[in-house]
Amino acid sequence: MTAAKTLKVRSGIIKRDTTETQISLRLVIDGQGAYKVSTGIRFFDHMLELFTRHGGFDLTLKCSGDLDVDQHHTVEDVGIALGEAFGKALGDKKGIMRAGYFVMAMDETLAVAAVDLSGRVAYVVDDKVKVRLVGDFQSELLADFFDGFARGAKANVHVKTMYGRSNHHKIEAIFKAFARALRGACSRDERMREMLPSTKGLL
């Protein structure tokens, strides 16, 4: 039997129900970029869809949130649930690259993302978006999504728009860069498949 045939499917299922949001999520890390996403915020759906495709993940996500109050709970809680799904799917994290980065060009915009699945929580977002809404998405909530993801996954997440004109492109380039950085961090290192990528013995 080949090593490829014995590799465990890395998947995570999250059910998160609060008085503010009800979330059902299924993630497959080693997927084919397939998605079925519904959050009630169409621009946010679009970002999660392209995140899934560029990461090569499979994602089924349904969120019913109190959008009559604000988008904040939906965006933050989806970030938390998605991060938790990655944490569950990665298990003990043995044999993964752990860290990844990517620089993404999108027309006139350039964005960079760096991820470390370190077991420690930190996030930095510099999107350079100066408008309140991009499509139907409250742009200030981008930071809340990445904050939630970092907490859920217990990861360091840094995303930055280097320059650009279109606010749509600034956010989209960030999500694409983030997807590909995370794809690299989750990828398997065959040479160290039985080892934890840390000298501390714990992630």
Q: Which keywords apply here?
A:
203 residues; alpha+beta; Ribosomal Protein S5, domain 2; 10 strands; 34% helix
Structural description of this entry:
With 203 residues, the protein is of the alpha+beta class. It has one domain: Ribosomal Protein S5, domain 2 (2-Layer Sandwich). 34% of the residues lie in helices and 30% in strands. The model has no long low-confidence stretch (mean pLDDT 95).
List the helices and strands and how they pair.
Blueprint: H1 3-6, E1 11-17, E2 21-28, E3 35-38, H2 42-55, E4 58-65, H3 72-90, E5 99-106, E6 109-116, E7 122-126, E8 133-134, E9 137-138, H4 142-153, E10 156-163, H5 167-186
Parallel strand pairs: 3-4, 7-10
Antiparallel strand pairs: 1-2, 2-4, 5-6, 6-10, 8-9
Helix pairs in contact: 2-5, 3-4
Instruction: Tell me about the largest β-sheet.
Output: 4 strands, mixed
What is the overall silhouette?
globular
Number of helices: 5
Terminal Cα span:
30 Å
CATH class label: Alpha Beta
Keywords: Amino-acid biosynthesis, Cytoplasm, Histidine biosynthesis, Lyase
Pathway: Amino-acid biosynthesis; L-histidine biosynthesis; L-histidine from 5-phospho-alpha-D-ribose 1-diphosphate: step 6/9
Pfam family, one: IGPD
Protein name: Imidazoleglycerol-phosphate dehydratase
